[in-house]
Write a structure and sequence with these properties.
With about 260 residues, this protein is α/β, with parallel strands linked by helices. It has eight helices and seven strands, in the order βαβαβαβαβαβαααβ. The radius of gyration is 17 Å and the shape is globular.
Length: about 260
């Protein structure tokens, strides 16, 4: 950490799930600019390779499906070997989207969304936290969503999964903060990404309603989330834990 700039992330290693594209890549880009080494995790090796080529020598990747829970310990070992030092920041960002009315959502579809967002995040967290506690420092960050704050139609499984992060953040913070590990979440609003595009394609009325809610009059960029993530994982936020920070251009308080 640069004593002259508490927002810097020198000597930090951030493992970012879903880090090859969208918001995850925006977080990775900003953390690299802040001085961290990032390890991107995802299923698509081609996307991860492309992302690391753009990020440069401060980035590496592990291609692995985080829902294969019995392989998480191996994932962590590979990540730390690629970075050459322990993971000090975990960003639970990976997710899948499902646009369906609640009555049409099957139990299997609901479970798939929940497994990726909630169960995989739990397994990764419980795997990495002991090392953070032993070192007396660390940061765990969850990417939640404004869908956890407001009623958005056709995203019940997604909203339920993102809402689960509230309880995970508050409980983990209560258990870990006195041991030097801070736990927080970001709740992005509507951000330009592939997931957002899929959700809004062919639905101009939905897009118009969304834009009418955003007080700043525009969707955000992945880096808008990335810089908020840098703040929450830096010593500038040394006394911030257990919070979910909306980064939404004012959508959650929009008229």
């Amino acid at each position: 950490m640069d004593s002259e700039n508490p927002f810097r992330l020198e000597n930090e290693t951030a493992l970012i799930t879903g880090g090859g594209t969208g918001i995850g890549f925006g977080i990775a880009r900003c953390m690299v600019k802040a001085g961290a080494h990032v390890v991107l995790v995802g299923r698509r090796e081609a996307e991860l390779t492309k992302a690391c080529a753009e990020l440069g020598s401060s980035a590496s990747f592990v291609a692995q499906d985080i829902t294969h829970f019995d392989e998480i310990s191996t994932l962590v070992r590979r990540a730390e070997m690629s970075a050459g030092r322990p993971v000090s920041i975990l960003v639970n960002n990976a997710g899948v989207h499902l646009k369906k009315f609640a009555a049409d959502t099957t139990a299997e579809e609901f479970q798939t969304v929940f497994t990726t967002h909630v169960l995989a995040a739990h397994v990764l967290t419980r795997t990495l936290v002991p090392g953070m506690v032993a070192r007396g420092r660390g940061s765990v960050l969850f990417t939640s969503s404004m869908a956890a704050f407001m009623g958005v139609p056709q995203v019940m499984a997604y909203a339920a999964a993102k809402s689960a992060y509230f309880g995970m953040v508050s409980t983990l913070s209560a258990e870990l903060s006195a041991k030097g590990v801070r736990v927080n979440a970001i709740a992005p609003g509507w951000i330009f990404s592939e997931m957002t595009r899929k959700a809004l394609d062919g639905d101009p009325a939905r897009k118009a309603k969304i834009m009418s809610r955003i007080q700043m009059g525009r969707m955000g960029n992945p880096e808008d989330i990335g810089w908020a993530a840098v703040y929450l994982c830096s010593t500038a936020a040394n006394y911030v834990t257990g919070v979910t920070l909306p980064v939404d251009g004012g959508a959650s308080v929009g008229f």
